[in-house]
UniProtKB/TrEMBL annotation:
Source organism per UniProt: Phialemonium atrogriseum
Lineage: Eukaryota, Fungi, Dikarya, Ascomycota, Pezizomycotina
The protein's name in its UniProt record: Nitrilase/cyanide hydratase and apolipo protein N-acyltransferase
Boundaries of every CN hydrolase domain copy: 13-289
Family: Belongs to the carbon-nitrogen hydrolase superfamily. Nitrilase family.
Gene Ontology MF term list: catalytic activity
Gene3D superfamilies according to UniProt: Carbon-nitrogen hydrolase
Entries under CDD domains matching the protein: nitrilases_CHs
Amino acid sequence: MEEHTPAPRGNNLKLAAVQAAPVFLNKAATTQKVCSLILEAGKNGADVIGFPESFIPGHPGWVEVLPLSTGPAQSLFCRLFNESVEVPGPEVEAIQAACQEANIYAVVGITERRPGTTGTLYNTQLIIGRDGTLLHKHQKYVPTVGERLVHAPGGTGSKASAKTDFGCLSGLICGENGNPLAQYSLSLDYPVVHVASWPPHFAPGVEVQDAIQAITRGLAVSLSCFVINSVAAVDEGAIEAYGVNDEIRKFLRSEQTKRRATIVGLGGVVIAGPFVEAQEGILYAEVDTGSVVAAKYALDYAGHYNRPELFAHHFKQFFDLA
């Protein structure tokens, strides 16, 4: 990643949250879709656009519904590996060019492949600047549940943010948005806008929207920032790929009816979304970034409203193991 010191700008900012389905396990077509959405958001005056988890080439949702030792799961992993993204690579270059043309910051979820190998994938977010610069790459700290057979633990360290012309832009993936240590680490960078990237579904009986609202409304409060919730949708390609029986197909069809993308303002108030009907599209919200300073007046968890020295002893066991 290149060093990037953006010029300062005013307080007004337009945020964009994507709710869409990838072209499942097709990185070329999904990259084209990402670029089209970036250009659309740019034409509508957006400054920041967030994309769902593992959007290119699609989240491995089969880990929630298929036995992972079966042939179908292994076959889907092989397809995912062959369609995954290398960084740097042509897919990343295309997204960078779209950001430059649209004059927009983008946080894009990908499944990342180790370059030149035949194994090992990561659940990754890319932060790309208005000028097309790759500002930061964040790999998910710990893959969640069945993802652990598909994705390796992240190796990019604690940092999950980048400097921009409006301040700090951060991002986390799915469940790690609720990780207290990840939240505290982000707070030290004082994010103004945070992108939370989410998959199209969890396991049957677990509602994605409940997790999104519970986690990110609190996150907006604790970080005193604006949160873009970008959520994937289920398309026919995913249903065809892992809807192997009537029960799974019925579940996936029900997930197609959900409306989950939102934008959360300071104090945990939802200021945009969800859509009135189940659909693909982009949600927008205009915000005043200057208001984040007033929000820190009472609660600055990275500064005056914390006592990290009182809690340091909790980590001694980890240091001793190291």
